[in-house]
């Protein structure tokens, strides 16, 4: 089961699109688990949210074995700097574990036209699939059409596809099957 928790207001129609798309990507039941407040003390000096701390401190939701929880925030996320500086952060997943967070801050403007809203929803879904993919042990993928292609990649088109490539899909299906047995 994938449980989606919002830490900002999101249009119910956007969330319905998101849960449907996550279900299609992983073949796992996906449901909304309500909203939670942004935990205190996770804000950085420049007004972003510390992604690692947020996943640690956020109010838990009821889960069962192998449930994956996806948190969605509106503020930009910050990650600890690595040797190459701080990585651009669309989201952060506790690799192979049960919690991930994504931000809507880097999505294209949602706008008010059918096309701009559609593009926004598809990009949100792509980042959600990407983050949940990491929770199912998927690594980054070279295929720019795959949701596991790095979100910061130069070769990612402006409106990227939101599906997993067949390799990543099969790998996630294998992991999910194993988890169920
Ligand atoms: Zn990634
Ligand atoms: Zn792939």
TrEMBL record:
Protein name: Peptidase zinc-dependent
SUPFAM superfamilies: Metalloproteases ('zincins'), catalytic domain (SSF55486)
Names of required cofactors: Zn(2+)
Source organism: Anaeromyxobacter oryzae
Gene3D superfamilies registered for this protein in UniProt: Collagenase (Catalytic Domain)
Presence of keyword Hydrolase: yes
Keywords in alphabetical order: Hydrolase, Metal-binding, Metalloprotease, Protease, Zinc
């Amino acid at each position: 089961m994938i449980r989606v928790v919002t830490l900002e207001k999101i249009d119910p129609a956007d969330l319905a699109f998101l849960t449907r798309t996550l279900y299609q990507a992983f073949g796992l039941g996906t449901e909304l688990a309500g909203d939670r407040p942004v935990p205190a003390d996770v804000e950085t000096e420049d007004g972003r949210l510390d992604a690692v701390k947020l996943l640690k401190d956020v109010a838990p939701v009821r889960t069962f074995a192998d449930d994956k929880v996806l948190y969605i925030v509106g503020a930009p996320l910050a990650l600890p700097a690595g040797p190459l500086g701080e990585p651009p952060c669309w989201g952060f997943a506790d690799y192979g574990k049960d919690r991930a967070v994504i931000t809507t801050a880097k999505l294209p403007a949602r706008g008010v036209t059918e096309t701009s809203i559609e593009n926004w929803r598809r990009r949100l879904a792509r980042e959600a699939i990407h983050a949940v993919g990491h929770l199912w042990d998927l690594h980054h993928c070279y295929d720019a059409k795959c949701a596991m292609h790095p979100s910061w990649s130069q070769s990612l088109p402006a409106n990227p596809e939101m599906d997993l490539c067949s390799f990543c899909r099969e790998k996630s299906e294998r992991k999910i099957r194993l988890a169920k047995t």
